[in-house]
Amino acid sequence: MPKQAMEKFKRCSISINRPLIPLKLALFCFYGIGGFASPFTTLLLKQRGVTLSELSAMTIFAPIMQILGTSVSGVVSDKIGRSKPVLATNLLLLIIYKLPVVLCTPFDKMWNKSLKLLKKIDALMFMIVIFILGTLFNFTIDFCLWYLDELNASSLLIGIIPSISAVYGLPFLLTSNWWLKKLGTHQIFILALLAYVFCVLGYSVLKNPWLALALDLPNIFTYYLLWVAVIEHSHSIAPERLTSAVIVISGAVHYNAGKTTSGLIGGIVMSEFGGIMAFRLLAIICFSVFVLYTLFFILRRKHISKKHHIDQNGDSKENVKACVIFTI
C-alpha cells in the first residue's frame, strides 16, 4: 500500500451528518422493501401456479420499461427538476397500495428440512456466491453513476446506461432457457463472477465516461441470465416444498445483505481512498470467490462422476450375480 494511502488509512474516521439521518433511514426502508419485492413476487407467482417459462416471459417487461423510462430520465430531470418525478412516483405507490390483495395459505412448518438445507455444502457455496454478486450489483447500481459524475459524465449518458443494459440483456433473456441448457447453472455463476471482475477493473481504469456503455455488457450474465439460473438452481438444491423459500432467501441475500456490504465499501473505502481503490478491492474479492467456486465446481463434478462410476460398477456386478443364479 502506498505511503499516502497508509496515512489516510490511519486518519480514517466515519463522519455522521445528523440532519440526513431521517433521510437515510427512509432510503434504507425503501431499498429494503424494494429488495424483498422481487423474491416475494417470485414466491407469490409460484404459489399461484406460474411455471418457470411463464416467469421468464414476465421478466421481459422489466428491461422494456428500462429502455423506455431511463433513456429519457436524464433529460426530464434537467427540464422539470427532480422533485416532481419523485412526487409522481410516490402517488403511484399509494395507488398500488390500495389494490386488493389475495392471501395465500402458508406452507406447513419446514424446520427439519430447513436444517438439512443449511448442512448442504452446495447450498452454502450458492449463498456465498449470491452474496458477493449482490455486493457487486448494488455497488455498481449505487456508486458507478456517482463515479461517472465525478468524471463529468453528462445527464444523457447517466440516463442511457440502464437502458443500454436492458438492450444488451433482452435477447439473452428471451433465449434464457437455451443458454441455461447449454451452460448450466454453475457455469453461469462462474461467468457472472468473472464478468464482474472485468467490469470493476474496467471502471478502475476508465478515463472516457462514454466507454462505460461497454462495461454494461457483463449484465448479461450478472443479472439477466443470473436470476434464471438462481431459480433453476433453487429447484435442484432445495428440499421438498422449500424451493420458493430458497428463492426468497437468495433474493434477500443478493439485494439486502449485498446492499449493506456495498454501502460500507462505497461509504468508507470510496470516500477515503477514491473510486479506483474501491473498484480494485471489489475486483480482488470477486476474483477470490471466482477461484474458490471454480475449484468447488471442479471437485464436485469429479465427485459426482466418481460416484456415478461406482454405482454403475455395482449395478453391473449385481446383474452378473443375477445371471449366474438364473443359470443355476
Automatic annotation (TrEMBL):
GO terms for cellular component: membrane. Residues 21-102, 112-280 form the Major facilitator superfamily associated domain. The chain crosses the membrane at residues 25-45, 57-76, 88-111, 123-148, 154-174, 186-204, 210-230, 278-299. Its main location: membrane. It is a multi-pass membrane protein. Keywords: Membrane, Transmembrane, Transmembrane helix. InterPro entries: MFS_assoc_dom, MFS_MFSD6, MFS_trans_sf. It is found in: Membrane. Pfam families: MFS_1_like. It comes from the Eukaryota. Belongs to the major facilitator superfamily. MFSD6 family. This is Major facilitator superfamily associated domain-containing protein. The lineage of its organism: Eukaryota, Metazoa, Ecdysozoa, Arthropoda, Chelicerata.
